[in-house]
Design goal:
single chain; about 425 residues; mainly beta; five-stranded antiparallel β-sheet; 7 helices; about 15% helix; about 40% strand
């Protein structure tokens, strides 16, 4: 059922101004990205189409239950009307955070600070299960960008997490999906599947190195998939925080466990095409999956298994079925899937000793502001610090005169070390 509501309505379970009879209604959602609806409605003799106006709210059934979408574009023709609407979450695009300095706060406290520093209270509720701490400086930014921007200064970039939008309840969780035990097998010439494999960064023979040149007595460790490629793909792994052979061996094995020996994979399943093929029965269970859910991806020819996530979908509201689902760890953006996230996690864990020593060496704070990274030496507030480093469009720079003083470039944007 598709209902339309007045622009200030908050009761999305009612029928509002009435029920519409669209000829098409499609919802698209991307993990930590767009969440939009496109609807087509004829100029019906009952005049239901006359209720369709900009800023009014459409309520429809989605994979995440009944959701509200605000109309932002209406395109009428002589026969019908095409409507574009954004999830009600995007009302926050019209709000602003003038200035908020979030310093060494937990995820929950940081999210509350973002909410409390909005100029207008729009009635949104925020929650998170992320307990790590971080620092963000927000200036003249809308709350959507403060939460999801990929420009170096947003909640999800500093704290991580995935957004779950349930009308005006906004959750940023470590993972919004689960592993339901579903799997996708693919090989060659499967109708209805668009598969992209990226071999960059794939390694099947790793030489491990630790502190003071410590290495494995067996020299290297091979991947179980080493014979799946025409020759070994060799990688020299070095981490000077590793002081024993056992630590080196565990670190190398962790790289394999987290997919360094298998290609990045992106799979688009077109159910409209698949349903007319013999292969459809192998993918029918995916019609019960949700955004962020984990799927086992099995390559029939190379015989590897890896984990991927549902990173986007197209949903037909009228038939209550997916038209398309996208799985992946190939797309290199904020929607990157679990396999890359796990590799990052293990890399950080392996290098924890170095990270701790670095943190202890810095008496000040670390701040991202105006798309630049500041490391303060003598004050937690980068605007008050005299001695600080800055990494940005001009490379790595240093000053001992404060942010408004003279900056000296240490490493330029070509990677060249300059003399100070």
């Amino acid at each position: 059922m598709v209902t339309i509501h007045e622009q200030n309505d908050t009761n999305f379970e009612s029928i509002g101004l009435g029920v519409l009879c669209p000829t098409s209604c499609i919802v698209n959602e991307t993990l930590n990205g767009e969440y939009e609806l496109e609807l087509e409605h004829i100029r019906d003799i009952n005049g239901k189409w006359k209720r369709i106006e900009n800023n009014r709210i459409l309520c429809v059934d989605t994979p995440n239950g009944r959701q509200a979408f605000r109309i932002y574009r209406v395109k009428p023709t002589l026969k019908n009307i095409t409507v574009n609407a954004r999830h009600i979450f995007y009302d926050l695009l019209d709000n602003v955070i003038l200035n908020a300095s979030i310093k060494n706060l937990t995820g929950g406290s940081a999210l509350n600070a973002i909410k409390n520093n909005c100029v207008v209270n729009m009635g949104f509720a925020f929650e998170t299960d992320i307990n790590s701490t971080g620092t963000i400086t927000l200036e003249n930014i809308n709350p959507v960008s403060a939460l999801l921007s990929n420009k170096g200064n947003s909640f999800v970039e500093i704290f991580g997490g995935e957004i779950l939008r349930n009308n005006k309840k906004i959750s940023i969780l470590k993972n919004i999906g689960v592993d339901r035990g579903f799997s996708v097998r693919y090989g060659k010439n499967l109708t209805g599947l668009e598969v992209t494999e990226d071999m960059e960064g794939v390694y099947t023979r790793i030489y491990g190195r630790g502190k003071n040149g410590l290495s494995l007595p067996e020299k290297y460790i091979d991947s179980p998939y080493i014979n799946s490629y025409p020759y070994p793909k060799i990688y020299i792994f070095e981490d000077t925080s590793l002081t024993t052979v056992s630590e080196i061996r565990n670190a190398v094995n962790s790289l394999y466990e987290n997919g360094i020996d298998t290609p990045k994979v992106n799979i688009k399943l077109n159910f409209q095409i698949l349903k007319n093929t013999d292969e459809y029965k192998n993918f029918a269970l995916l019609e019960n999956i949700k955004l962020g859910d984990v799927v086992s991806v099995i390559h029939n020819d190379m015989n590897f298994i890896k984990k991927a996530k549902v990173i986007s979908y197209e949903y037909d509201v009228l038939s209550q079925r997916y038209n398309e689902i996208e799985l992946g760890d190939y797309i290199e953006d904020i929607t990157t899937s679990i396999s890359k996230g796990e590799r990052i996690y293990n890399t950080v864990a392996t290098a924890s000793n170095i990270a701790q020593k670095t943190a202890n060496a810095i008496s000040g704070g670390i701040t991202v502001a105006n798309n630049e990274l500041y490391v303060c030496i003598d004050n937690f507030d980068y605007t008050q610090s005299k001695r600080l480093f800055k990494f940005g469009a001009k490379g790595l720079q240093f000053t001992n005169q404060g942010i408004n003083g003279q900056w000296n470039t240490i490493i330029d944007t070509e990677g060249k070390i300059t003399e100070i």
